[in-house]
Design a protein that fits this description.
Helices cover 43% and strands 9% of the residues. The protein is α/β, with parallel strands linked by helices.
């Protein structure tokens, strides 16, 4: 007879020989003893865990001449026939190749007849999830009320693909992956029976590669037996299976944590010269970092890791020197980038770039520590209680140096805060403290029919104090202004007053919601926003989300809101992938921009700039700013008493 591989030679023939699956074995034996065996059973689980084996043992126990019994005798004619695969009354069907309705009809015709030499007819369908929908439907009625002499047993690795109508008619048994100690003991026993000595570390590698599957582990063990002969060493397992030495993986991980790129490149070169599969190397490296995290958070890491005692001690020693934030950050970075390496045309370059990023990212500063550093820097004063004199530049100059990925967001400047609600705000420049206190309220442009702005009387203007009488520290910074009056219009607003589109998008939606709630709700459906030159591109996944927004009157309103909030002349465009359904007419949205330019060059505004030696701050053109401002909030120049003019 030809050679039998270990997976077939060591197949269990009784319930006692089954490795693991104690709960399933106990349930089946009790059902046999108590006479409560269901007419249909379905075994599910990963490959190589014993689904078909349990079905065959169950068939022998039902048809055993000494039973039905909790254990088949394996000596009677029925047990021997089932063991040899020669039983007429046991029919095994491959669901992958016999998956049609015609095969199920033929099966239904056969089960009508009584068993030939056994007590029951047993039907075992392997990979039952491969049957077609029509085949499942043809099996429903027979499966619900089968003949008393028939038992159905199904096996599948993908239970979710089996229709619920089939599952409801079966008793389900889910087989779990075998634990490393169970697999290790089983493989050690088989190696001793074969007269082969296996080093403990080599056995651990085989168990790790088996992944909880008995059949996968036995196939690897059989291959290694053929290569090594009577003695199996660790280096032999590494050569046969193409594995990476665990020590090499540990050295690579330690070099990444230490930021030693030179060592990383040297080890990576060794891995490539060895011909190691990049995917296997990536998985081993991720498993190593996972081991560090487990050692960091678990009190009993040995229960969660498939490593030797020496490897566990080494992991625990390294984990004690790193913070959990650093380990989790590097683990996340490697997990995201190593998946792309296998699809890259230059996998080595992609792997090197990933390691460079990991080295740069190793010093992660927790948010709580950043907050405590700022508290120490500010003397315990909360950030919202700081006076305006404490600038973001001062904080930046005195803050501790942090990695770029951990730099806190800059403090908001006063120009980023929404201004009051006049249409045109004139901000004084180059004024002394005394002059700034004596300046009147900002002016607001009036409709064309309003009378021209009256110049304030010379005697009522505040007298300028000579600069020589001011102390040097009282002098404000005086930039050199060589711009003409036309250059000081809104076409070049102060840089610090600009708002970033993405950073302030949520605030803009809130701003729109206060004026047009439905428009804010429609804008919330946008997938993303971006600025491209003088255009604001709003991306939608579905053209139905921007059907209303593209109408001319709504586009004009939206342009008004954008100009008022961001204080920049931006045009709006809606972008839908593969569709022009939401394209905006170029003529739409021009009216608000023209009105904004007209307000910036209004004679009244230009006169105010000359009188107060100021510059244009914000221009608001929305309809809500055309109404008169309550006297409690602000007053125009014309509404003020004559004594203050």
């Amino acid at each position: 007879m030809s050679y039998l591989v270990l997976a077939r030679k060591s197949r269990p023939q009784t319930f006692a020989e089954v490795v693991g699956q104690k709960a399933v074995v106990r349930t089946l034996q009790n059902a046999l003893t108590q006479g409560r065996v269901p007419h249909a059973l379905i075994f599910s689980g990963v490959r190589g865990t014993g689904k078909t084996t349990l079905a065959r043992i169950m068939a022998k126990a039902l048809n055993c001449e000494q039973g039905p019994a909790a254990e088949p005798c394996n000596t009677c004619q029925s047990c021997r026939q089932i063991t040899d695969g020669a039983s007429i009354d046991l029919q095994e069907v491959d669901g992958a190749s016999n998956r049609g309705i015609q095969e199920i009809r033929e099966l239904k015709e056969k089960i009508r007849f009584m068993p030939t030499s056994s007590r029951y007819k047993i039907i075992i369908i392997d990979e039952v999830h491969m049957l077609t929908t029509e085949a499942f439907n043809a099996l429903l009625k027979t499966l619900e009320e089968p003949p008393s002499h028939v038992y159905f047993m199904f096996a599948t690795t993908e239970l979710h693909k089996v229709p619920v109508t089939i599952l409801s008619r079966c008793q389900r048994y889910e087989l779990k992956r075998l634990s490393p100690p169970e697999l290790s003991a089983h493989f050690k026993r088989l190696a001793d029976e074969e007269g082969v000595q296996v080093e403990p570390e080599a056995l651990t590698m085989i168990v790790r590669e088996a992944g909880g599957s008995v059949r996968d582990g036995l196939s690897l063990l059989d291959q290694i037996f053929s290569y090594c002969g009577p003695e199996i060493k660790t280096i032999d397992v590494i050569d046969v299976l193409g594995l990476v030495s665990h020590q090499l993986i540990a050295n690579m991980g330690a070099a990444l944590l230490a930021g030693d790129l030179a060592t990383v490149y040297t080890l990576l070169d060794q891995i490539y010269l060895h011909g190691t599969d990049i995917k296997r190397f990536s998985n081993d490296l991720l498993s190593w970092f996972r081991g560090l995290i487990v050692c960091k958070v678990s009190k009993k890491p040995s229960d969660l890791l498939e490593v030797t005692e020496d490897e566990l001690n080494a992991l625990a020693k390294i984990a004690a020197t790193c913070s959990l934030e650093t380990l989790s950050a590097i683990f996340n970075l490697l997990l995201e980038n190593l998946e792309k390496v296998s699809f890259s045309q230059q996998p080595r370059l992609a792997l090197e770039l990933t390691f460079i990023r990991a080295v740069q990212f190793r010093d992660v500063v927790p948010v709580s520590e950043l907050i405590s550093r700022f508290d120490q820097l500010l003397g315990g004063t909360p950030l919202d209680a700081l006076p305006s004199s404490v600038s973001a530049e001062r904080l930046q100059n005195h803050a501790p140096q942090l990695p770029s990925s951990a730099q806190p967001a800059p403090l908001a400047s006063p120009a980023q805060i929404d201004p009051p609600q006049p249409v045109v705000v004139v901000e004084p420049v180059q004024q002394t403290q005394t002059e700034q206190q004596a300046l009147p309220e900002p002016v607001r442009s009036k409709p064309p029919e309003a009378p021209p702005l009256r110049k304030p009387a010379a005697e009522s203007l505040p007298k300028k104090e000579p600069l020589r009488e001011l102390l040097p520290e009282e002098l404000p910074p005086t930039p050199v202004l060589e711009k003409t009056r036309a250059q000081e219009t809104v076409s070049q607003p102060p840089v610090e007053g600009k708002k970033r589109i993405r950073q302030h998008w949520d605030a803009f939606l809130k701003y729109v919601h206060e004026r047009q709630p439905w428009m804010a709700a429609a804008l919330q459906q946008a997938a993303s926003v971006e600025r491209k030159g003088d255009e604001l591109l709003i991306h939608f996944d579905d053209s139905a989300d921007c059907t209303m927004l593209k109408q001319r009157n709504y586009v004009n309103s939206l342009v008004e809101f954008v100009l008022d909030f961001f204080q920049e002349s931006l045009s709006i465009q809606f972008v839908v992938p593969g569709s022009n359904a939401c394209a905006i007419d170029p003529a739409n949205g021009l009216a608000p921009q023209q009105e904004r330019r007209a307000l910036a060059n209004d004679p009244l505004v230009l006169t105010a700039l000359d009188v107060f030696t100021g510059q244009v701050g914000d221009i608001r053109i929305g309809s809500s700013y055309r109404t008169s401002t309550p006297a409690s909030n602000a007053a125009t120049v014309e509404d003020q008493p004559a004594t203050e003019e």
